[in-house]
Automatic annotation (TrEMBL):
Underlying gene: livF
Alphabetical keyword list: Amino-acid transport, ATP-binding, Cell membrane, Membrane, Nucleotide-binding, Transport
SUPFAM superfamilies in alphabetical order: P-loop containing nucleoside triphosphate hydrolases (SSF52540)
ABC transporter domain boundaries: 6-239
Family indicated by similarity: Belongs to the ABC transporter superfamily.
Native organism taxonomy: Bacteria, Pseudomonadati, Pseudomonadota, Betaproteobacteria, Burkholderiales
Keyword Nucleotide-binding attached: yes
Name of the molecule in the record: Candidate ABC type branched chain amino acid transport systems, ATP-binding component
GO-annotated molecular function: ATP binding; ATP hydrolysis activity; branched-chain amino acid transmembrane transporter activity
Annotated signal peptide: none
A Pfam family per the record: ABC_tran
Any one Gene Ontology BP term: L-amino acid transport
Length: 241
């Protein structure tokens, strides 16, 4: 069994006439939380969307748990045990929280068939999901929608969670709740790949880090080492953490 659950090798992605990724090499160690950092426009979201098959890599390979998934369709990749939470969260606003969760629980036809122990675990991680169970999802606050988006992603067991900017626009108290939830997810054996702009979030949670610039990974290593090296931070990110 490889130490890396996910590996990108020389991945290029074109979107129309635009060449966005220029040979991305990225390793996501099994059972760890990997942070993907970089300035706006560096290619972070494109990398996540390419992993999920929403945009096809024009060159290079993507391997998940030893299998080449480069050419698989998005539903096939999800079927391998990968969940994706986009920056937009993808909430169905006109459906209730319960109905949003039920859509993600592919093995259940009604809410009563969702694994009870797993649902109780999710409610403990994100109490707002239980509190607003029968409310329209569109009426939730931004933080509550983010909790719902992550809850949908884990309503069934997953090997890998791929999440784009989970703390964006959230109040500090909700961010702390999210940090605690992700720490517990990692402790349960789930591997996580997060794009994040909140530096405190990255420092507290990250095991490993990859920094992107101009469609390439320009630095990879331990999050702790980057957090302690202000000169390296400025050279890679243009600021100190």
């Amino acid at each position: 069994m490889s130490v890396n659950l996910l590996e990108l090798s020389g991945v290029h992605t074109h979107i129309g006439a635009y060449h966005i990724l220029h040979g991305v090499d990225l390793q996501v160690p099994r059972g760890q939380l990997t942070m993907l950092l970089g300035r706006n426009g560096a290619g972070k979201t494109t990398t996540l969307r390419t992993i999920m098959g929403l945009w096809q890599a024009s060159q290079g390979s993507i391997r998940f748990d030893g299998q080449d998934i480069t050419r698989l369709a998005t539903p096939q990749i999800a079927g391998q045990g990968v969940a994706y939470v986009p920056e937009t969260m993808g909430i169905f606003a006109d459906l209730t929280v319960k109905e949003n969760m039920l859509l993600a629980a592919r093995r259940a036809r009604r809410a009563g068939e969702i694994d009870d122990a797993r649902l109780k675990w999710i409610f403990r991680l994100f109490p707002a999901v239980q509190k607003f169970w029968n409310h329209p999802a569109g009426k939730l606050s931004g933080g509550q929608k983010q909790m719902l988006a992550v809850s949908r992603a884990i309503v069934e067991p997953r090997q890998l969670l791929v999440i784009d900017e989970p703390s964006k626009g959230l109040a500090p108290a909700i961010i702390n709740n999210m940090i605690d939830a992700f720490a517990e997810l990692k402790a349960s054996g789930v591997t996580l790949l997060l794009v994040e702009q909140n530096i405190n979030f990255a420092k507290r949670l990250g095991d490993t880090v990859a920094v992107m610039d101009n469609g390439r990974v320009v630095h990879a290593g331990a999050m702790r080492e980057l957090a302690q090296d202000e000169e390296l931070q400025r050279s890679l990110l243009g600021l100190a953490l």
